[in-house]
Amino acid sequence: MLGLFSFICNMWKTSQLIDDVQISMQMRPLTYTRKLSELWVGLSTIEAKWRSFENILSPDTYILGSVLPSKDLVQQILQLPSDSTLYWESQWIAYRASTPQSEHKQRIYLKEQPTFIQFPEDLLEANSQALTREITPNTFDLNALDERGNTCINSSNCYIDSSASITGSILDASQGPIFIGKNVTLQIGTYMQGPAAILADSVTNLGAKIRPFTTIGPGCKVGGEISASIFFPYSNKSHEGFIGNSIIGSFCNLGALTTCSNVRNDLKPVQLYNYATNKPRKTGCKSFGILLGDYVTTGIHTKFNTGTVVGNHCNISGTQFLPKFIPSLTWGEYPHFSPYRKNQAAENASAWILAKKQEIPENLPSNIEQIWKEEANARN
Fold it and tell me: Could you give the C-alpha distances from 288 to 30, 75, 229, 246, 268, in angstroms and in order?
């Protein structure tokens, strides 16, 4: 028993995926409620992708929480000498030390850029690559699929869990793989183009259109048209409306016909509000829709402009285009926004959590209080 305990204590753990303060600021509002390693990319969080390396990494290794593993990167980390740090240009990627540290003296520089997240648009780019790389087709009963009125184009490029319920849908994997997870339900008329994934316990409504480079996280309910976007777990967009090149946090609910623009009319690169500088930042991307934090609800017909950022715990609506930055804890119909009462925000968040049959975090009130204080100037 002592030997087993010693072995476990000397294993590398995913808790050694470390946040970078600057990147965490740049990834707000998503990182108000999660570590960088808990961001969703492809079929899982970044943390989940590193779990398969727990048995081979040295226990004194610390890795940037927003970097995705690859065979080449893991090999470079394994070769890292003690008390040294692996860098890509000015960004540290991994280091070996007895304790977490902020100063990195002995530097070794990577020759090839690893995939790591610095800004929201990086998450979308990494997602498009991860979907193609991570989806491994399986063998499923194609006849049973046909009997339920489905059409599967290039079925050898699909993974469909045996527990999934699919009726009257079109799965087009001719341009990229498709992943249908455990207990997923695709209602009649769903059209899905790969590469795309719908993860465990999620549901598509009648006529949903899931376009390429989209990940629908666990426990979501979606409809309308969704393209090149990531839905974090337990969010809803049940009705018509377009969401493209967007990131939707957890426990969001988008009202019917909520729609975003994802390309400027002049085709110029999109700017996004940056929490690290409190001002817009040039992304260099021509396509970016919206970035919603957790616990955001929108009223029917809500319209978002290209490159809109919405903080956590917002209950908003508006038939004209909303501002491109909406601070956390905002309530009401634009242009008559007002601060969202903290106790009411906590009650509404709790209601959505329970509706999804999840546990309410003990730190929910304190997290709301922290966000309230940090974004006081933005609300004013």
Answer: 16, 34, 9, 6, 11
Contact 258, 237 (CB under 8 A): yes
Instruction: Provide mean pLDDT across the span 312-318.
Output: 96
Least Cα distance to 28 among 322, 277, 242 occurs for 277
Partners of 279 in beta bridges? 274
- Taking every pair of Cα atoms in the chain, the longest distance, rounded to a whole number of angstroms, is 67
3-state secondary structure of 177: coil
Cβ contacts of 164-173, under 8 Å, gap ≥ 24: 166/190, 169/204
Would the pLDDT of 81 be above 80?
yes
- Helices (H) and strands (E) counted in the chain, each on its own, are 9, 36
- What the block records as the tokens of 245 is 């090149």
What are the pLDDT digits (tens) for 91-109? 999 999 888 876 777 999 9
Pure H helices in the chain: 2-9, 21-26, 46-50, 71-78, 120-134, 142-147, 342-355, 364-374, 376-379
Please report the DSSP string for 303-350 in residue order: EE-TTEEE-SSEEEE-SSBPPSEE-SSEEEETTS-EEPPHHHHHHHHH
Count CB-CB contacts under 10 A for residue 232.
Answer: 27
Regarding beta strands 271-274 and 236-237, do their DSSP bridges make them parallel or antiparallel, or are they unpaired? unpaired
Q: What is the pLDDT of residues 349-379, one digit of tens each?
A: 999 999 999 999 999 999 999 999 999 888 7
Domains annotated on the chain, with CATH: 2-117 (no CATH), 134-379 (2.160.10.10)
What's the distance, CA 229 to chain centroid? 9
Instruction: List Cα–Cα distances, 154 to 143, 151, 170, in angstroms.
Output: 14, 10, 11
**What are the tens digits of pLDDT across the range 170-198?**
999 999 999 999 999 999 999 999 999 99
Tokens at 121, concatenated: 């648009």
> Residue 4 pLDDT > 50, yes or no?
no
